[in-house]
Amino acid sequence: EQGHEEIATMLGDRHLPEDARETEDETKKRQFILTYVQPGLAGLMDGSVSTLAPIFAAAFATGDTWSTFLIGLSASVGAGISMGFTEAAHDDGKLSGRGSPLKRGLASGIMTTVGGLGHALPYLIPHFWTATITAIVIVFFELWAIAFIQNRYMETPFWRAAMQVVLGGSLVLAAGVLIGHG
């Protein structure tokens, strides 16, 4: 199999016109974005933003880092499972050209979980304010990383991406804190 791939690559390099090679490269890039980046980015955004309110509401309502961690863990894992199944089930990839539902579902589900765990894990620190400040710093970096990824792969102008993600995330964070103080 490896020998066949090497021969195909060699023949392609030798006989494929430059414009056809560029078209193939663009097609590969587009497929990578549709199969992995877009679902993964949607998952990262969902996990990072949708878990802010429950985690910070739990933190400020209970003042208990262990309970907050468990709530954050369950919100992150639950959201990851939900987003993964949703992405895999809603489109088989044939009509849209978005690629394998399994690959898209895994990208979305894993990144959703990662996005939520980022600011849940600091609550393993037993001191409330140390955990909360660490979680807020992580949220800051998560939201800016999402804006960077949107700019880099989805070609969204950076400041527009930043305003959408950072403003939206800040509003959800504030809602969680206010509800937790309620």
From TrEMBL:
GO terms for cellular component: endomembrane system
Membrane topology: Multi-pass membrane protein
Predominant location category: membrane
Biased composition, class Basic and acidic residues, residue ranges: 1-20
Keywords per UniProt: Membrane, Transmembrane, Transmembrane helix
Membrane spanning stretches: 36-60, 66-85, 106-125, 131-149, 161-180
Subcellular locations according to the entry: Endomembrane system
Region named Disordered: 1-27
One Gene Ontology molecular-function label: manganese ion transmembrane transporter activity
GO biological process: intracellular manganese ion homeostasis
Protein name per Swiss-Prot or TrEMBL: Rubrerythrin family protein
